[in-house]
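_Per-residue structure_
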Amino acid sequence: MWLDDVEVANVFSRFCGVQLTPEPVIDISGASGVALALAMAQRRAWRGHVPGPGGLPGGYPVALEDGRLELDLPTGVEAASAIAWNVGYEAHCGLIVDAQGRAHYSGRLHDLLAAESPALAAGFAVADLEQVWRAMCELRDRLLARGIV
């Protein structure tokens, strides 16, 4: 994470007081997406952060100018290194979508999910996203009822 072109050394310590609600974090992504959509509709410049611009893995700071969305990386950070970092992070503890459109959980995320739902941890075809979303909502509700989340 970068603030004003300065890398934050320990993000978790710096923002330890920031807590998400138990509600789905997709609301946060959706809310941030509204600002970008409005800027696009109004044909005005915008800077922010988006997941997967241009199909890239992970999230990136971007700038919208003249109707074009481009990476807006901090000074000294090359696109190749930002992409490599995201690929490595997702492989270590996230979710990877392969060229055949199948999502695979990896690392810590896979292990935690497998402990609660081996079927969900096995991954899914992106075409089945709506069914997976329902199953994830059911899992979230079970975890909330147990006081885990």
Q: What stands out?
A: The mean pLDDT is 87. The first helix runs from residue 11 to 14. Strands lie at 2-3, 6-7, 46-51, 59-65, 68-71, 95-97, 102-105, 124-125. The chain is about 45% helix and 20% strand.
